[in-house]
Structure formats: structure tokens, C-alpha cells
Amino acid sequence: MTPQPRKESIVVLDNVYKYFPAIETIFGRSKAYIRAVDGVSLDIYEGEILGLVGESGSGKTTVARIVAGLLKPDSGRVLYRGFDIYSGKIPKHIRRKIQMIYQDPEVSLDPRYTVKQTIEEALRAAGRSTNETKDLVRSLGLSEDVLEKIPQQLSGGQKQRVAIARALAMRPDLLIADEPTSALDVSTRTQILNILLELNKSFGITIMIITHDLGVAAYMSDRIAVMYLGKIVEVGAAEEIIKEPRHPYTMALISSSPSASRLSKVNIKPIGEIASQINIPKGCRFHPRCPFAMEICRREEPPYFDVGDGHVSACWLHGGAPKT
Amino acid sequence: MSAILAIESLSIAYQTEKGLLRAVDNVDLRIEDREIVCLVGESGSGKTTVANTILRILPPNAIILDGRVLFEGVDLLNMEEEDMSKIRGRKINIVPQNPSTALNPILNIETQFCEFLKHKKGIRERDRCREIAIDLLGRVGIADPERVLKLYPHQLSGGMKQRVLIAIAISTSPRLLVADEPTSMLDATIQSQILDLLLDINRREGLSMLLITHDLGVAMSACNRIYVMYAGEIVESGSTERVISKPLHPYTIALIDNAFLSFKSQGIKRAVSGEPPNLIDLPSGCRFSSRCPMAFDKCVKERPNLVQRGIDSVRCFLYHDASA
What is the pLDDT of residue A4? Predict the structure, then answer.
């Protein structure tokens, strides 16, 4: 057997925590915390598309903002090409390399700016010539007549294309896409997803896509990480995660999604509802909803078990020796 | 079978500053007794306008251009508001898209339940009302109805609020439930629970349902028959199984292909290019022609009729010859 080439990590999250105060007393001290990110370690490999999947309250958007350099974690390290981005002020050249696009593209577009002004401003900030504006806009399948329009005059799909163009002006090597298509109709959704796939394939831009939709994650991702209540419960190759999920939460999520369950054979229904991020259940945080919960699940938090070939799952069902 | 609801050649427009917006054009739709029918379409297709017409809650700028809405054989559009208010909220009830805005935030669940029962069923005694409410909340899968009655909406999760609203909706033993995107604000695992509940209620309470959704996955798992809407028109209808497995209209074909994504390794899906037409300035030919990969000369010039074959119908010139 030939040895597999080692995958280079572009980003390493090392035991990252981020809590937000939930109820503040008059002295500004918090009595309860929302444990949005509760000990996350994750690598994003150079050139891959990583899907980060979870329901609302899973902490996936907080992870996205931490990776994007927008939110300093309480503890843990975030390395971009080996450089700890929160060790001081984030250098400009690094900030440009990591770009983010949002569910609502208007977040990154100034409502008073025409498309032309938005793109030109970004190109100037990146030290590029504004002559490239037309090419950039055209490369995203937009016609030139959008250049003089303001965001309000554009459709949802057009706005997302402009937001992507703006991000590309910075020549990023990591693009973080937070639910980029969940405000769009299905027919427009594929257009935007295909643009992202093309950016990954042709320019080698690494992409982390945050989504609640496992169908989108399957279509886009090389690897999928599943989050539940602030923790990653399972990571692995996308097809394996969908076809042979090992964590009961992943199984439940797939069974609940009509589009993803067509790609898989698993079918289990989770019990009850997602717990609050303030009172996270003891032991395994999924145990109150898990149809397979055992005694140990109520007491002890499961470690990560390596279930084969980089596929990792935090569940006591796997038994054996945990991954160290 | 007798139809609970029969919509016949319904056309609705909105008066806007830029002109008449043709939201719904010549729509026919039937719901048989105990049937669950889905109206599927993307934003702006007119599906919510159809729902609002059935309930007669159209905004003031809406104009009913033509058509009838027969409920148990009586035309709702010709009815005095006084008579309509005896049907709306009694024989026809609604399950809203956003459960958070449908409940009053300053009243607890018991008070809201009792208000509704007093208004719609003339039940004034608090004890009697509480008894009915507890029974109904049990029937929608709420484990501890006594406790839930004392709570305020902000203390309930989205899924629980939707359950409460479904309990209120079935309290008058309606014949028809109109559910406008009842699960699109909910997380995946909760969404499938609410869908299961609606199916269960359809069986147990013996009522018919019109489910309006943009999500073909939801339609697939819930409905007996599907109507597909595009730019204000019904473009296809048929049994759920037939529409999903053998779609006829190029728009339905594209919609299904784009809704059920596959793995990244399977390659890129062909996206539908472009956007839906402007409903104020509609094209003279087929409304999907500018985006249709199979369009020919005639499609741009003439409007296709809806061709009916048994329970299947399709509005496309590709099928015109076969039926002639």
C-alpha cells in the first residue's frame, strides 16, 4: 500500500469554548451562560469543502464566526496556517484571506452602494485594479446591467452572487458560507451551490459551509461535521456520514430530512426536543432524546471514538478504546 | 367522492404602484373528503394567495378577477362576511407558518384557548374550557397539558407552540385545515414530528387538509396529491407518487432534480437558469419558457392550456399532441 499523502490543515480549532451571558444581574455579572461552543476541536483541510451541520442552537454559526476571525473564543486556539489568529490583532493580510458570506446577503452589502461601488471598494481594499469589476461580476453569471443597481433592486440570488463577488475581490483562500442558500428558492439554490463548487474546483478555495440541510451538505461536502448543543458529535467523509452514520443524533437528523433520507437507509426518530443551551444535559448531551441511551450515557460524557479512516463519533455505543 | 373544497378558475390580482400584479391565474383545485393535498411552489408563485382566498383574509389591495371557491358546495366568495365568520375558525381552520406571531405574547395558553372556545363555540365556563383544552393538548402529543396551560408563549419552544396552535385549530372539529408552511420555521427533527402529528390528525379526526409548502420533501412525506404552482398558474397536478417519480412538466422535473440533491462525488446538477417572470409584465407565451431547456418556438408565442388526464394534469405543449 502506498502511504496516503498527509492532508494539510488550513485551519485548526483546538479545544475552543465560547459562552455568552444569558441572564445578567444589575452588577453586570452573569448567573447563567449560553454554552454556544462547548469544547470544539476541528481541522479544515486545504482545498476541501467541509460541511458543518446542525439545528438551531447547535453553535454552528458561532463556530463560523470564530473561524472567520470575527469572534474571539473564551479559550482554546484557532490556527490559520499555523498562526494563532487571536494571539493579538489579526493582521490585514490574514483577515483578507478568510472571507465570509451570509444567509442574508444584505448583511455584507451597503444598501446605498451600487453593485459597481461595492465591488470597486472591495477591489481597492485588496489593492487590485477596479478595471477588474466587470470581469468579476460576469464570472459569477451576472449581466453587466446589475452594475448600476442597488441591493434593493436585485433578487435574492443576484444579491448572493454580488456578496460572493465582493468576497472574491479579496482573493480569499478560505470561504466561510453560513447558510448561503437557506433564504433562496430551490431553483436558485442550485445556481449558488454550483458557483461555490466551481470556486472550490477551479481556484482551490477551501470552503466551510454551515447548513441545517443535510441534502445541501451531502451535495457540497468532502467531509461533514455534525454539531449538537455546542459540541461536534460526529465527523467523517460526507458519503459515509450520510450512508452509514454512527452517532444516533446524526441518524435522527438524516431520518428527519426527506432529501437526505433518500440517500441513506437509517431511520430513527428522535424523542422530544432540543434541550436549552443553558442547561445542557449531564453525561452525553443527546441522551434525553436518544432511543439507545444506556446508564453510562446519563453519567459520563462520551469521548471521541475512531470508527475508521478519520470517521470519529462521540457515542458510548462504540465502546472499545477512545481516540486519544 | 365529494369534494370538500373546489376552487374553480380562480384569478386574483394585487393593485400595486407599478400596475396590476397577477398573483393567481385561472387556478382549479379540488380537495376530496379526508384528503391531504399539497400546493407546492416557490416564493411568489401565488400559493399563499390561494390559501388567503379560501379563508377570505386577502389584503385590501387584492382584486378577485374571476372564479369560485366552493366549500361543501357553497361559494365562499359570494358570502356575506357575517356568514363567512361562521365558517372561518370553525369549519375551516388555519395552521400558521410562524407559531410565534400567531399567539398573543401577554396571555397564557389557557386564556388564549378559552378566548377561542368562548368566541367560536360559546363555552364560557372556565372549568369546562380547561377540560377541553387538556384533552386537546393530549391529542397533539403534549405530555403535561396542565403545566403547559399555565405557560406563556415565550416559555414554549417553536415545536410546542405549533402543537398548541394545532390543538386550538382542531378544537372546533373543522372539516378543512389550511396549513401554510407549517414546518418551515422549525428545525429538522421537530419538523418531522409536526408533520407526523398532522398526518395523525388527518386520520383520527377525519378532516381534509390543504398543505402549502415550498419543500418537496415535506410534500412527499405528507400528501395524497400534489399541485405544482409556477408564476400564478397550476403547471402540474397528480398523485404524490406519480408527480415525484414521473414528473411531466419541465418545471416540476427541474424542481425535483434540484430539491433532492445527491453526493458531491456524483457531480454537478444542472441548475435552472434565470428567475421567474415579473407578474406585472407577464410574457405572452408559457411562463416557464425563458428558463425551460425544452422550449421551442410555440412556447414563446402561445400560452399552453392545462391538459387533464384522469387525476393528472399538465400545462405544457410537449403533452398537447398526445391528448388531442
Answer: 54
Cell of B265: 462525488
- Do B179 and B290 lie in one domain? The reply is yes
Domain boundary among the residues B144, B171, B198 is at: B171
Asked whether residue B63 is domain-assigned, the answer is yes
Both B39 and B49 in one domain: the answer is yes
Average pLDDT, chain B: 93
pLDDT digits (tens, 9 = 90+) for B168-181: 999 999 999 999 99
Which of B187, B218, B258 lies nearest to residue A55, judging by beta carbons? B187
Nearest to A166 by CA among A98, A115, A131, A95: A115
Which of residues B129, B151, B171 is at a domain's end? B171
- B268 contacts in chain A (CB < 8 Å): 194, 197
Residue B10 shares a structural domain with residue B125 = no
With an 8 Å Cβ cutoff, the interface of chain A facing chain B consists of: 49, 55-56, 155, 157, 185-191, 194, 197, 212-216, 218-222, 238-239, 242, 252-253, 255-259, 262-263, 269-270, 273-274, 289
- How many domains are there within chain B? 2
Contact B149, B130 (CB under 8 A): yes
pTM (2 decimals)? 0.90
User: B221 CB near a chain A CB, below 8 Å?
Assistant: yes
* ipTM summary value: 0.85
- Please spell the DSSP secondary structure of B129-149, one letter per residue: HHHHHHHHHHHTT-S-HHHHH
Q: Which residue's C-alpha cell is 374550557?
A: B129
**Distance (Å, whole) CA B301 – CA B298:** 5
In terms of domains, do B86 and B102 share one? no
Residue A129: CB atoms within 10 Å? 9
From chain A, the residues in CB contact with B261 under 8 A are: 190, 215-216, 218-219, 259
What's the pLDDT band for A21 if we cut at 50, 70, 90? confident
Instruction: Specify whether B167 is located in the same domain as B180.
Output: no
B324 within some domain? no
Grid cell digits, residue B30 = 379540488
How many residues are there in chain B? 324
- Give the Å distances, CA to CA, from B161 to A252, B126, B131, B164: 22, 22, 19, 5
CATH architecture of residue range(s) A9-260 = 3-Layer(aba) Sandwich (3.40)
Shared domain check, B261 and B132: no
Query: What residues of A are in contact with residue B275 (Cβ under 8 Å)?
Result: 155, 157, 188
- Would you say B233 and B249 are in contact if contact means Cβ atoms under 8 Å apart? no
Chosen for mutation from A190, A212, A244 (greatest number of chain B CBs closer than 10 Å) is A190
Which chain A positions have a beta carbon within 8 Å of B191's beta carbon? 256
* pLDDT, tens digit, 9 for 90 and up, residues B275-290: 899 999 999 999 999 9
B165 domain residue, yes or no = yes
Model pLDDT for residues B178-229, shown as the tens digit of each residue: 999 998 888 888 888 999 999 999 999 999 999 999 999 999 999 999 999 9
Distance from CA of A241 to the nearest CA of B (A): 11
Residue B118, domain extent: 98-171
- Please check whether residue B324 touches A, CB under 8 A: no
Measured between CA atoms, the residue of chain B closest to residue A191 is: B271
Cβ contact, residue pair B259, A219, below 8 Å: no
